[in-house]
Amino acid sequence: MDLVKLLEFLADGEYHSGVEMGAALGVSRTAVWKALGKLESDGVALEVTKGKGYRVRGGLDLLDYDVIVSRLQLHSDKLDSVCVLQDVDSTNSYLMRGDLLTSGYSVCLAERQTLGRGRRGRTWHSPYAKNIYLSMAFGLSGGAEVLEGLSLALGVAVANCLSDQGIQGVGLKWPNDIWVDGKKLAGILVELKGEAEFGWKVVAGLGINVLMSENDGRGVGQPWTSLELVSGKQTHDRSLWSAFLIESLIETIERYRTNGLSSLLDDWSKFDILAGKEVTLSGVEGGGVCHGVDSRGRLLVDIGGKVTVVNAGEVSVRPNESTD
């Protein structure tokens, strides 16, 4: 049976009996029971109460393709495709399997990722219908230099979007992690295919915590937060947030294509949480004090009175203060 239709039935957070759901969906009670078991195995938390039936406590905020696309009319001429999947290995991998793009954008969102990834091969935890798992594919022409500041530009796009929608205390941790109040809210993973002579296919994956619970985040190995926690609101429209983020990403990438990272450095500086802070560099003996980034997006760190240039692929950076 169609699991999406069953999920839509349960999305209201109310109790529904197996008989009721079977009649509404045109299937047997046994088929409903098997489908509910599949949902549980996929990570959907179901409650069962004798005499009442099944429910998802608090309901589900399912992604709505129509809401997302209708909100993107401003950029409809730049969009090649938008897809919303029930589950996928990773939204990045899904788009990387496609053909090389030209000047348009393709977007993939999913309710759940089974093999979500972060930077340096880390696992990105992807509880069902709790967060935003979004990837955008687009083309860039030019040599390797066109890629140098891209990660920072994408981070600026997300930070500006969050700030514009009223989220306070948004910060960027080089090269593109999004933090709020000393905790990670979102991360970005950039993957590439192609070469300088023929152009680059870029896939930028964004994972942003929206409604993740303490139980969902037990396996996360660093302090984390969510839009629910930082905003104080118990409900967030993930479809609307997805549209906001897609809009901001397209606008920022277009600026980057035209004017490069230099047009975004003021925005980066506004959100930079490492500037003036002591940091520890993994793979580098000792630490130093950050002095922002250069025109190529490389981190500048004063180590023993000498400014060292740090490339994103070489080290990870950790602020010494636990609050940042």
TrEMBL record:
Keywords: ATP-binding, Biotin, DNA-binding, Ligase, Nucleotide-binding, Repressor, Transcription, Transcription regulation. Biotin binds at S90, T91, N92, Q113, R117, G118, R119, K184. Coiled coil: none annotated. GO terms for molecular function: biotin--[biotin carboxyl-carrier protein] ligase activity. The keyword Ligase applies. It is an enzyme of class 6 (ligase). Residues 64-257 form the BPL/LPL catalytic domain. The lineage of its organism: Bacteria, Pseudomonadati, Pseudomonadota, Gammaproteobacteria, Alteromonadales. This is Bifunctional ligase/repressor BirA. NCBIfam families: birA_ligase. Residues 18-37 bind DNA. Acts both as a biotin--[acetyl-CoA-carboxylase] ligase and a biotin-operon repressor. In the presence of ATP, BirA activates biotin to form the BirA-biotinyl-5'-adenylate (BirA-bio-5'-AMP or holoBirA) complex. HoloBirA can either transfer the biotinyl moiety to the biotin carboxyl carrier protein (BCCP) subunit of acetyl-CoA carboxylase, or bind to the biotin operator site and inhibit transcription of the operon. It catalyses: biotin + L-lysyl-[protein] + ATP = N(6)-biotinyl-L-lysyl-[protein] + AMP + diphosphate + H(+). Its EC number is 6.3.4.15. It comes from the Bacteria. Belongs to the biotin--protein ligase family. It holds the Pfam family HTH_11.
